[in-house]
Amino acid sequence: MSSPRATIIMRCKNSDWVIDQALAGTFSQDYDDFNMVVVDSGSTDRTLDIVRQFPVKLVEIPAAKYYPGDVLNDAIKDHCTGDIAIFQNSDTVPMTPASLGALVGAFDDDKVMGAFGRQAARPEAETWVRRDYLSSFPPSGDAPEWMPYSLPFAGMRKTLWKERGFYSDAWGSEDTDWGYWARKNGHRIDYVPDALVMHSHDYTLKQIYGRQFIEGEADAFIHRDQDTVLDTLKRAAGATARDAVACLKAADLPGLAMAAPRRLVYSWAYHKGHTLGESRIASGDTDRSAGQEAVLTRHDSA
After folding, report:
1. Which entry of 55, 88, 143, 257 is 20 to 30 Å from 12 by CA?
2. Of the candidates 201, 202, 203, 218, the residue with the CA atom closest to the CA atom of residue 273
3. Could you report the per-residue pLDDT of 220-237, keeping only the tens digit for each?
4. What is the 3-state secondary structure (H, E, C) of the chain?
């Protein structure tokens, strides 16, 4: 028998609150020419019990070894038997039976080297989260220029991955880095609104700090630019204003009250991470552990 066209790679840790929905949704898709690899990095809840109920290849790694770029590269190298690598987060739930088929179908065009789907916020998501996701993943047309690729639901040709795998200079944003590289080098990356999934996070201030810290560190490596305190204040002010407008329209008074403090934490964490990245680049420091600690110690699974 020939290998399936696509291999789905799913990463997880302590995802028992949602991974059954993600897996059941995927194995209920109209498109079924795929196999799946699940990489778990130290779950202590019911995640592994749930995963074992599905026809997947389970790979277990220690939590300390979880660096996204490295994990993805190893998964593709060792376990991707299909021509197309599909990436689906363990908290990403297909919204229609045609979501996976729409994503894989983008590769029917030989010029398409990568594709990513539309992420809709969860129905209980906070106002600012819904606004962010709607602007990042519009229901039609193209994604914004600053959203070149997004791994919660995406695919790439394995041939292009062999040309350039995911970077691992910093802990996060391996998808953003790869998307910018691909487009800069003339490779076509399609946004597929019909590949619709549900995926979002209502992060606490503590979690926002961790996520934005590693985003900032990664952007220093991706863009090789500098971030100043003035940049931080401008980002915070602009985002606060947009969140405030959205909260007013939604009559979300608690969200309105949190708009300024949330975006200050958001922007300051990004600045601190970016500053670390700038320092690491200048000194040639290859130690990625600070970013890993910043995000993982604040994550739900910690």
Report:
1. 143
2. 218
3. 999 999 999 999 999 999
4. CCCCCEEEEEEECCCCCCHHHHHHHHCCCCCCCEEEEEEECCCCCCHHHHHCCCCCEEEECCHHHCCHHHHHHHHHHHHCCCCEEEEECCCCEECCCCHHHHHHHHHHCCCEEEEEEEEECCCCCCHHHHHHHHHHCCCCCCCCCCCCCCCCEEEEEHHHHHHCCCCCCCCCCHHHHHHHHHHHCCCEEEEEEEEEEECCCCCCHHHHHHHHHHHHHHHHHHHCCCCCHHHHHHHHHHHHHHHHHHHHHCCCHHHHHHHHHHHHHHHHHHHHHHHHHHHHHHHCCCCCHHHHHHHHCCCCCC
Q: 38 is written with which tokens? A: 């699940």
* 47, 14 Cβ separation under 8 angstroms: yes
- State both tokens at 211: 């996520």
Spatial contact of 46 and 14, defined as CB atoms under 8 Å apart: no
Longest dimension (CA), the chain: 60
Structure confidence by residue, pLDDT tens digits, 230-286? 999 999 999 999 999 999 999 999 999 999 999 999 999 999 999 999 999 999 999
| Residue 76, both tokens | 């593709």
* Among candidate residues 115, 123, 118, the one with its CA nearest the CA of residue 190: 115
For 97, the token pair is 């039976």
Contact between 271 and 229 (Cβ < 8 Å): yes
How far apart are alpha carbons 222 and 297 in whole angstroms? 24
Q: How far is CA 38 from the centre of its chain?
A: 16
Task: State both tokens at 142.
Answer: 């193209």
Name the average pLDDT for the chain: 95
